[in-house]
Fold these 2 entries.
Entry 1:
Amino acid sequence: MKANKEISIELILKGISYIIAVTAFMSVFMHIGIVYKLIGVFLLGLSLSIDFKTRIYVQRTIINLTTVFILFATFYRIDLNDPATPVIEGLTVLLFVKFLEEKAFRDYMQIYTISLFILSGSALYNIDMSFLAFFLTQFFLTGIAIVILTFYSENKETRLTINAITKTITTALLIPLISIPMLIGLFFILPRTTLPLFTFLNRPEKGITGFTDNIRLGDVSGIQEDASVIFRANMPRVDDNSLYWRGVVLDYFDGISWTRSNRDVTDVLSQRGLKGEVIQQGIFLEPYDNRYLFGLDRPVGINMRGARFQYDLTVMADDVIKKRTYYVVNSIKQQAVETIRIDTEVYTQLPEISDKVKNLSRSLTEGKDALSAVNSIVSFFSEKNFKYSLQNLPITQNPLEDFLFEYRFGNCEYFASATAVLLRASGIPARLVVGYRGGYYNPIAGYYVVTQQSAHVWTEVYINRHWVRIDTTPGSFIVGQRDASFQQKIRIYLDTINYYWNQMIIGYDFEKQMRGFRTFQSTIRGLKFPSFQDLKSFIPYILFFIGILITIKVIINVVMQRKTFEQRLIQDFEKRLKKKGYIRKKHQGLRDFVETIRDDEYKQKVFLFVKEVEEVFYKDIKPSRQHKKRFKELLRAL
Amino acid sequence: MAIEIKNQTVSRIITSLAPYLQGKENALKLSLLAYFSKGHLLIEDLPGLGKTRLAVALARALGLSFGRVQCTNDLLPSDITGLSVFNKSTNSFDFHKGPIFNNIILVDEINRATPKTQSALLEAMAEEQVTIEGKTYRLPEPFFLIATQNPLEHFGTFPLPDNQLDRFLMRISIGYPPRDFEKDIIRGGSKRDTINLISPVIEVDDSLKMQKEIRQTVIISEKMLDYIIEILQATRNNKYIKVGLSTRGALALSYVAKTSAYFQDRDYIIPEDIIEYLPYTAPHRLILHEQYKGIDQRELIQSILQEVKIPL
């Protein structure tokens, strides 16, 4: 007996929807303001009585206007110290307002979505066991509700037996259950989203082949050119000769390798020395195994949280660069930077070196002043026909000596190192700078791509209170001066996509967004309602505006609708009856339609109208003025 | 579907016949509709449900003469139309009129007659005249033919060709009377004799006048013409239907609609006049595609009606 009892599907749907909404409401109940608690409860009661008793729904237009108002108010109330509460309060009101109208498919879907938002919002306040309970309730009920909703949208009158309902619900429960294994999969990934998901899954190889802060000579015979990108620099094009990207300064030589001594840099830069044309670069740095931040030589300022600026113009991040990083660096392109005082001892440090090297140094600089001494060392490399090579590098105990006197070829490390050693041997302060040289310019997006193969080391020498960049490496290797091959060109253009992705995701500027938001909000708050005096001067504008509205309306009526009097009459008639809950089907004759009216008194009235209309419509009579008047009168009575 | 009759004359006929035709009010109304539309009626029903009774009662109430033909496969055309017999005294052939020369003629089990006989009948229906031995005889006016056929029997029958079905204005069925009426009938025994007691409600001339009035005074507006055309098109473009409504079918719709309007004291037709009677006027005129023969034609018509917008 009981199993055969039929229940209207609408009732089930409404019941579930209410439970979902109330769950969402309860999840944030403790966290919203008292006023909103009251409004929520009041609206809930009101919609319950509408849905299950009176069935007099609020008009959609009113609902929509209210919605806009609520959104506006929510926005107005948003406080950057606690942005969540106003939003959740607004959503709560929105949710229950939604219940006041006659709900169609999309309204139910909106209700479920808003409920979900509210529940997610509640997680901002607390995420204890109660959240799990609310979440599971919503999770399963929404699944069921959506299945029932599809039934409902097919036919609102559907009635189901208890058996059928049980079956439906069991089946509907399966859908969320199936998704649980997937959720488990996501569970392992999601909590680690402090790192970008992509990097986590596919961490790129550390780009150590190019750049290093430990220049070691003589332990490899060849260096593979590595074309992977180390950074992209968004900046105007500059001439190739000044494309030195400064990384780290190395000041300590132990005979084989150059390292950075662990000391506070005591260089005193002259204020004057840092002036000049500033070139701003937006750098998208790929993850690599160190913490130095690159910038066009010489960097003078950087905006990046935690970046440390050293007086030898080395910039360091506070940690190893583990993910794509964006920073802006300002540089002046000067070959020499005025430095008032340096720690000469540090920059002339040398280990025990062979007499051969000492003698060479002496022979090059004997009796010369600092400037010509430097000149003679620099020209020594070109005069003696030193060659650049990445292959067959000498693997020896004395790489420097062998480079200078035997092989006479090597990579930049040998050149820079030898230069610095020769200078230091003569008591001239010198240091090594590791960085990059050159780069491909992408004219479409306006940035340089710098790859690992552009890694470079050069020397800086201190003469006449200036640190001066000298590069003794033969220039032929410089990437960027070589013409890019067709393939490379294509790669550069393809790289544009990469670049824009970086710019949008990595370069995402929260501060900028918040600034935009604040401006927008202050504009809204700044709206002042005009006083009466102001109003007077507005009257012509208002009239003008109304005039335009009327004109538009008329044009729409004339052009868009072009409906006959009859069509408009019937439209009006149908609108009135729709309010009473009677909807005429397109294939339903007027009289058959009248027959569907249950209230006899009302039916009589409608019938009178229909009869008189038919007499005109179906006798090919052109409705006269009297007719029209009469029809309108009859319509008004409905 | 309740058919409301407002025309006084018609409702008088119905009231006077109601006691004799318990439970057959709908069939009675449809028969009157066909009669006043100057059409002919095909009743498709099982035997013993009061077809003859309906025809006789109708004839009595309308003050018309009544004839009946029971069709068999040896029935000849002359058995219906009549034949000339040599008269010795006048030394000439005298024409003896057959049953068709009545105002109302009931042709029972028309599908048992041979095609030859059927076509003679149908010619009479269409032309309202018969030609025998070169001489043309006008049929009496009014002339109303009610044919019946048993839908279940196929053995030894000659189903009416589709084009001949088209000549019937309506195809109806009477159906079993409701339980209470059936009890009354059993209790009271057959009341066939009592039918003869029915006195005419209207004169023959009156019904002729009414027939004429219906054709001439009821207006079909442009809108309604469009509506009829739309329905025709819908039947012609339906995927289940091979041959939709013919122009003759359309005329039939309009005639029935006019009479329906007249019955309700209107001088114009409204969509309901078409919609209500389409299940009786249209289905037998449709020829379905071979593979869809099983489809109920009446339901098909209903679904077609749902596709056609009401003219407003």
Entry 2:
Amino acid sequence: MAKAFAPIVITANDLVEGDSVFLGPEGWTRDIRMARVARTAEEATALDASGAQGETQNLVVGPYRVEVSLETGAPVPVLRREQIRASGVPTIPVGPAAIEAAREAA
Amino acid sequence: MYRYDEFDHRFVQERVAEFRSQVTRRLDGSLNENEFKPLRLMNGLYLQLHAYMLRVAIPYGTLDSARMRMLAHIAEKWDRGYGHFTTRQNIQFNWPKLSDVPDILDALASVEMHAIQTSGNCIRNTTSDPYAGVAADEVEDPRITAELIRQWSSLHPEFTFLGRKFKIAVTGSAEDRTALKVHDIGIQIVRNTAGETGYRVLVGGGLGRTPMIAKELRAFLPREDLLPYLEAALRVYNLHGRRDNKYKARIKILVHEIGIEEYARQVEAEFAALDRDAIAAPVEEVARIAAYFAPPKLAARPAESTAFERARQVDPGFAAWASQNTFPHRVPGYVAATISLKPIGGAPGDATAEQMRAMADLAEKYSRDELRVTHEQNVVLPHVALDDLHSVYRGLAGVGLDAPNKGLVTDIVACPGLDYCALATARSIPVAQNIARRFGSTARQKEIGPLSIKISGCINACGHHHVGHIGILGLDKAGVESYQITLGGDATETAALGDRTGPGFGYDEVADVIEKLVDRYIELREVPQETFLQTYRRVGMEPFKEAIYATH
């Protein structure tokens, strides 16, 4: 039996800022919850084309598919890597905030 | 300190202007990403998980206060207020915008810095001993040789597109503080039986997915032959260069496959055929470079300092820091002081703009305006008078850089891992933080003694896990982070690759596992002075395996 199609969204990096963006209904968004979700292979192919367009239009770099879970309603990446990437920041306080956190811990 | 000549200034400025034009063309669509990517990489600009990342070269880790202040300025103006010092003695900025990078490069050029050859398949930043010019066992300051190599390797037309990246380290001491044996080429300055100074050349070391310890290529290379010999060694490698499989393209694979004898034979043949005079650095040029690294004129001081002794007695924090974070200076009355960038719970190697400025101020006031970045992601103030050490300590304490943990269990080397890196398969920084918190007590760290933990977030091994006394390698197992442990690695002159303990552990288990290993070591050691590494070499893997897998 063919494996069921796992839902996907399209992600890329913003050309100027370099941060993670997701293909939404009206262009690229930084909020994965706003991303368009492909639930079938055909829908995914159509999203691929839109993602590639973002690259040719010089908006984003390196679009690719990210498998998502829809258990909570909104798309959540399946892989840890993509969860971290979608969050837009490291999983720990960084920079001056990290120093502050370390001071408080001490 | 190195200095740019007229050519260097003009070249770097031209390169910035060229990159500015390339960025403009990328932003207006004249260049697509496939065309632009090799250009940005040649200027140290990566695209990571959350943002662009700019890696800036710090030649052999040496910088002065003006350069450190410029790094602080860049962190504040164009990044998020901090930078990350790396195991290649460089610094990375994690959040620059593409449109700002030309301005950042302009700012760097104003203090004779750049990001050229910090990426790509070329000769990368040549690293060296952070105690260069300080260590008593030094044959000669290795930075003179490192600077010669920097000049020779910068934009070398034949070696700009090698099969893979190429890393060279230079030490002037028998005690290796440069991880010499895990470099593509390691150069040790030595004296032969006739008393002449020259080089012992090692080749084919490296970490990554196929770790190897370097082999000796030449026991003694006359000083004047250095650059021609390197040219021959690189040429043989480049001619063999496998461009079909990047995992087999490093020189370590070549040396391993054809054997050190055959590689050496080919290098010697190439070397014999070279026009050595055309490649060797002129004597006067070497003398000019050597003058840049003339030892600072340190005023003679008594070997004992009353002010230092008094401060040690009244300030226990200072006493702990001074005993752990200082290194003997060849000039009596002075020490090299290590600023640990590993505060408990901090990100290894990170420093905020405020901290960079504080380090710059202290270097200017107390260390002849010099700082050194170490391959263990710390910073050294190389020339501090004992009389001034307490003032340095208080200055560091004011900005949270007073951790007394150099070389101890919390002085953890860690790559950026999955919190930043697009290649990573698991997080490194939070793992380091969890371990550091577990062993946060200064007394406990002291009791454990010298112990190097190194963490990589993928098999590329940027965190040097293979040569940690305890190495931790983060992998992805079906979408879940899993950490393999290695024991017995060593980055020094007695270099060794760590042995894998067995199956990996989950993210939440790692700190417990490290604690079990440490507890078992404490039980096993014969005397408190026997280090973790010595104990491991004496008893082997089994007792440690038993400690971590018995109830697993």
